[in-house]
Amino acid sequence: MKIRKAVIPVAGLGTRFLPATKAIPKEMMTIVDRPTIQYIVEEVVASGIDQIIFVTSEGKSAIENHFDYNFHLDSVLREKNKVALGEELNNISNLIDIVSVRQKKPLGLGHAIWTARHVIGNEPFMVLLGDDMVLSNIPCAKQMISLFDEIGESIVAIQRVPQNQTHRYGIVEGEENGRDKTYRVRRMVEKPAPGTTDSDMAIIGRYILMPDIFEILSTTTPGHGGEIQLTDALLALTKKRSMYAYEFDGKRYDAGDKMGYLKAIVAYGIRHTEIGKDFREHLIEIAADL
Ligand code: UTP
């Protein structure tokens, strides 16, 4: 089956980035000239998906507004003869069909995804976390969809992390599968205590899930941090059917974390078509002064 829909949960509180995220959703924080969430929506569009489902919460309307048509702004830009800018803004709102569902309480990522069950129905779908950015030649979602077209089972994107960092991630244990960079998942655990796993395969914010996950999520009880964890539901899914971990090509940035956000600004800044060259030179100047 084709992957037609992508769920992007954006209902989290963003406590790691307070006070910046008190009144502004973390997904609206800017990387060079556009909000984080726009990069993720562009990845979805470039991967051939037809529809996005935002899982939102109170205080996140700026995200929906960003992808909506702004009649007033459009007229003002036309009056001021800023046609190209107006068209660029309209392109954002025309990128893809977007709907929103509301997560009434921040009960966890697993619960956020479950909230989208009626819009997804009975088909496999993609999940992209609203603050996880992946810089790559081929969009990460597209790489995963190509793999899904071959194997037709759930896939989690993974990256290797140092052993002393595994407690910050969902960790996958599994075996090589004969396919390059693909592993059959045996076990997964959310934020394992140090020393409790030998694996360095950390789950990042890209998943392709079979719809069976919804039934499992409906009975998943709160886990780590008192939240309904997607990782717990994924582990239950591996008992029913095969699941694969895929070491994608590219570099992932956690833009919901202060350090990850700064790294993303530098990575995207030095590649920017308009200011990239000047920014690189500026960084070299700064480095000389350090
Ligand atoms: P995070 O843990 O990164 O997001 O969740 P958070 O809770 O907003 O951030 P901190 O830890 O307090 O700083 C991963 C993703 O899951 C979404 C978040 O919006 C983020 O995209 N999420 C998390 C929800 O949509 N609902 C939730 O109840 C929890």
Description of the structure:
The protein is of the alpha/beta class and 290 residues long. The chain has one domain (5-289): Alpha-Beta Complex (Spore Coat Polysaccharide Biosynthesis Protein SpsA, Chain A), CATH 3.90.550. Helices cover 36% and strands 24% of the residues. The protein is built from 11 helices and 13 strands. It has helices at 36-46, 61-66, 71-79, 83-94, 109-114, 117-120, 140-151, 212-218, 230-240, 258-270, 276-289, and strands at 5-9, 30-31, 34-35, 51-56, 97-102, 125-128, 132-135, 154-160, 170-176, 182-190, 201-209, 243-247, 251-254. It has a 5-stranded mixed barrel with strand order 8-11-9-10-12. The longest helix has 14 residues, at 276-289. The model has no long low-confidence stretch (mean pLDDT 92). It binds uridine 5'-triphosphate (UTP).
Mind sketching the topology for me?
Blueprint: E1 5-9, E2 30-31, E3 34-35, H1 36-46, E4 51-56, H2 61-66, H3 71-79, H4 83-94, E5 97-102, H5 109-114, H6 117-120, E6 125-128, E7 132-135, H7 140-151, E8 154-160, E9 170-176, E10 182-190, E11 201-209, H8 212-218, H9 230-240, E12 243-247, E13 251-254, H10 258-270, H11 276-289
Parallel strand pairs: 1-4, 1-6, 4-5, 8-12
Antiparallel strand pairs: 2-3, 6-11, 7-13, 8-11, 9-10, 9-11, 10-12
Helix pairs in contact: 3-4, 8-9
Uridine 5'-triphosphate binds near residues 13, 16, 112 and 129.
CATH uppermost class: Alpha Beta
CATH topology: Spore Coat Polysaccharide Biosynthesis Protein SpsA, Chain A
Q: Write down the domain tally.
A: 1
The fraction of residues assigned to DSSP E strands is 15-25%
Bound chemical compounds = uridine 5'-triphosphate
Number of helices: 11
Radius of gyration: 20 Å
CA distance, first residue to last residue: 54 Å
Task: Enumerate the strands of the largest sheet in spatial order, edge to edge or round the barrel.
Answer: 8-11-9-10-12
Secondary-structure-based class equals: alpha/beta
